[in-house]
Specification:
alpha+beta; two-stranded antiparallel ribbon; 69% helix; 9% strand
Amino acid sequence: MKIRTRLHILTAASATLVVIMALLFYWSQQRLATANRAKNLADKIVSSVFERKSLNSSYLSNDYQDAKDQWLSKQKQISDLLKTAPTDLVSISDREIFIEIEKDLEGSSAVFLQILSNRESARNGVRPQAQANETETRLVGQLLLKFLDTIAESHKLQKASDELIAATQKTAAWVSLSIIVTIALFMIIVAWSLGRIISKGIKNLQQGAAAIGAGNLHHTIPSVAGDEFASVAIAFNTMSGKLAESHAALERDIVARKRAAGEIEGLNQELNKTVSQLQGANQELEAFAYSVSHDLRAPLRAMGGFSEALVEDFGDKLEAEARDYLDEIVIGSRHMGQLIDGLLTLSRSTRGELLHDQVDLSAMTGRIRIELEKSEPLRRVEWQVEAGLSTGGDARMIEVIMRNLLDNAWKYTSDTAEPLIRVYAETAESELFYCVADNGAGFDMAHAGKLFQPFQRLHRQDEFPGIGIGLATAQRIVHRHGGTFHATGIPHKGATFRFSLPYGKEQFKPPPPNLLLSGEA
């Protein structure tokens, strides 16, 4: 049996015994009240009978009419008192006492009426005075006997009431004592039983915990009873079993980790070797970049310079086809120079240590805008630049990002009737993105993957000139800052480039509404 059930039974039994005590107290109070009413009634009857005896003596001695009337009134009062007797709560013997008192009162009333009649007969001369006196003496004796009988019965009623009160008090006391003793014994037995169960359960748990602490993960606690400790023992045994399984798995994991550590050590050695090779490759790359920037530029400048000199000095003597060939050589030399510059920029974007600068993107955009407007003073472009754009990172590299994006926006809106370039920030999925948008040529999203591949272009060279290295460079710089780069576009409706810069990130605080640096060039 569960401990909770035992406690419920104890509570119910205690409540039942308390209810029984309450009912007993109520019964005893009712019995005492009944006995007290009977005793009070007996006292009133005795008092009234004595008052009636005094009135009777006053009438017989002095023949007072008022005494006669009062006697009759007192007689009626005693009869009314008898009617108030608690007939449903007194014993049969008490009921008989009331009946006897009632008979005595009726006899007393009959005798007193005979005395009155006898005196009336003597007064009217119907009966001789001597005979009337003799008759009255006899009747007065009878009336005295009835008085004594009434007093005796009233005393019996008083005695019976006192006995009822004493018996009721005694019975209530014994029953109360019995219930109290029963409750005490019951609670002692239940408390001993619960204490024994709880003590045994706690002892088993202590032994189990000690065994587990000593390393015996297979220790089990016996669970024979159906109480709460049995449930705890089952849960404990389940826990110890799982601990044993976990310990075995942990040992296997330790062995696997040691094996993995050995493998990692080997991989680290290979990695160190690879790092050394990468460092050598980077040094070779730097040497190659240096060679490109110096060794290749010299002959390239010579080739371009001599071609331009040949055109200037002997252009009028050359045939048209030969002159076209020289022009193509000059254009190719310039294009090759641009490709070399792009390669160097792309190489520098992935090397070197990043700086921690505070960058004002709004001010940087303003400087680049001025340069673009000076390059084509006749163009009219509307600019919308959000004020207060600020971020952290390498200012030199972030300027490369902004310059490439704004150059593209300026270039690809050249054929737009009302060109618009926007620079702003937005938050998506708790990440801050800086955006450069335009309403220019746009691009097909099906070919968006080529945007960030070096030398891959989505437009023909005769439409929009370029070498296809700017977006690849910008993306690499963003990735070095730990950010992401996204591009969306619609052909002939514009493009939007979004990038984030978690490196040196600050909490973004949006500027007040309409706080834009707008203008038209």
